[in-house]
Amino acid sequence: DVPPGLFACCSCLAPLTYAPPPASCTMPLARAHGKSFAHRGELRQAKRIVVKLGSAVVTRGDECGLALGRLASIVEQVAMLQNQGREMMIVTSGAVAFGKQRLRHEILLSQSVRQALHSGQNQLKDMSLPVLEARACAAAGQSGLMALYEAMFTQYSTCTAQILVTNLDFHDDQKRRNLNSTLHELLRMNIVPIINTNDAVVPPPEPNSDLQGVNVISIKDNDSLAARLAVEMRADLLIALSDVEGLYDRPPGSDDAKLLDTFYPGDQHSITYGTKSRVGIGGMEAKVKSALWALQGGTSVVIANGTHPKVTGHVITDIVEGKKVGTFFSEVKPAGPTVEQQTEMARAAGRTLASLHPDQRSEIICSLADLLTERKEDILAANKKDMELAVTAGRLSPSMLKRLSLSSAKLNSLAIGLRQIAVSSLDSVGRVLRRTRVANNLELEQITVPIGVLLVIFESRPDCLPQVSALAIASGNALLLKGGKEAANTNHILHELAQEALSLHGVKDAIQLVSTREDVEDLCRLEKMIDLIIPRGSSQLVRDIQRAARGIPVLGHSEGICHVYIDIDGSIDKVIKIVRDSKCDYPAACNAMETLLIHRDILRTPLFDQIIDMLRTERVKIHAGPRFASYLTFSPSEVKSLRTEYGDLECCIEVVDSLQDAIDHIHKYGSSHTDVIVTENEETAEHFLQQLDSACVFWNASSRFADGYRFGLGAEVGISTARIHARGPVGLEGLLTTKWVLRGDGHAVADFSEQGSMKYLHENLPVSHTIPSQRTSN
């Protein structure tokens, strides 16, 4: 029975039965209400959720009828979350638009019939529609809107119930208790309540003066209704979907308008509101007031776009998963800057860094190298703490633990590499690559310049931080660093040292360490702030970043499937030495051998026996390729895939018939990283080197040489297998781009027309070996 004083009707005709969540449900239990979530990541714990659908979300662009595609995708997400064991409620608009569509159709039909009776002709072009009163439209549209929701939710075996309310239902204590009781009972029976203001009888809205306390708020639109309902029902989360991305610091579309990722109650003075959306009676100011009221009552709030075709299908689930979607309202303001503020700080300081004299940038890098050795004990103490925590947690593999570990020898090697970079930096930014005399007194130069803001994401490799920092300083780039939490203590002290070195010339903020809870996917969405992403870590990390990056180039490789091919003319000593080093020196490295290709004629020879004996001695697990397995009576375990990066003391052995077969195999199964041939036949080797399309191709040398330090680059930000920009180990040169500088004297293109007085010369000019800043420093 429906409690008295409450407008309610259940839309499900079947008997109401309680459907508990599945036994496998991992949803958290309902938390004690009273305090909202402090961070987005905590939204995953939300159990009771109110989804508010604004008029712009539910209705079509012509405001007559519903946006069925958007509505269907929203229903699917709500049903999915409901079936996970969460308690979902919907506050919806749309009754007026749905009723307007029905009434217009009825009026057109009625007028058409009357005209046909009076004139015998159907003259629809002369018909005019009367202004439709909103309450009448709501009365005509409520039943149809609810029937549509019922039909959609039925596809997911989810039952719904309709509840219509007015302001009086919240101000009358008995009615409010009745409403609360009904909603709790529906949620207990696993039913999704669909709530709307009863627009057919709703009284005029009350003044805004009622947004003062936790216990008072007028229901004048669905924003205030959703806020009141969320607090009344002690909801964990209110998701308010509208036709804007979230809350901006000024009207969207105006110059320099910035979308706020997180909004804090004390920031209200910094917001300039614009006009309302095309439909509905609320605007962004009303949404913010309602959101802050709900936040004060203990409910977390996110305002997001529910109309964008690319995100509507997952906007609600993304919010619940804690992803950076829309604007998150939080009462807890972090002590440090947001990642957006860090990026802006880095870009501003990076421009100053790029304008420094090369000697000054070199001095900063040398200072960082000195700090690595002078503060060695502090660094190793922080690293020891990270290692102890990692071992206790037991989540890192032995190879990952090895990457995490630092030693005095590693720090000394890092310092040497940094000093090499310092020397290279003297001839980097501002170097002239090309000079052309376009015409008399019109000269063109192509010069090297920084890329801008780099985002480097790395796992379990704290030694990466000073290397990448030095390369960024040398190339004049701003740098945003996101390290793995397993190296948090080591990264923290290494970043402090980098900023201490940068302070020599007042550019401390050029390198920022992201220590907030931002997920990698969220960082990849900062396409307006970051110019290049460089992932350093597992192949899975690189693939995830390549998928998540939207409009930001990604420099790197997803896998390091490196091959060593043993030719029929290979030297026994060289073969054993190169194969051992390529596989066993550092199996976790991306340049370690993963597949050993052997010429068919080497099988059942002393050389083959020595290779197998060496691998067994080194405790390398062997996986047989299909052809190799066919030659053996009792073979090792057959490989599951020839495209496997083991990252451990494991490798695949496969047999090929010829040099061309080896090249074809590598092209088919390799990752274009590093591939090696071992042979004494120079013609065979040159054919391999010329024909193979990999970033690094070696003759009679270990694959482990594919490294920026070993190439003399000082260090590398990673190895790229891309075919544009930089390829192979990416050092200083790979972090530079170019710009064109044209110096004229009042030249105009019209001067070079057929009737003009000037002609193009396009003469190549000699290029200076010093960069402009060096030429003018005296």
What does this structure look like?
- By secondary structure, the protein is α/β, with parallel strands linked by helices.
- 37% of the residues lie in helices and 17% in strands.
- The strands form five sheets. Strands 1-4-5-3-2-6-8-9-7 form a nine-stranded mixed sheet, with helices on both faces.
- Helix 12 packs antiparallel against helix 16.
- The longest helix is centred in the N-terminal third of the chain and has 25 residues.
Largest sheet data: 9 strands, mixed
Shape: globular
Q: Please report the number of helical segments.
A: 24
Strand order within the widest sheet? 1-4-5-3-2-6-8-9-7
Structural class: alpha/beta
Roughly what fraction of the amino acids lie in strands?
A: 15-25%
Mean pLDDT: 86
- Unreliable residue runs: 1-29, 205-217, 277-281, 774-778
Helix content, binned percent:
25-40%
Oligomer: single chain
Query: How many strands?
Result: 25
Radius of gyration: 34 Å
Separation, N- and C-terminal Cα atoms: 91 Å
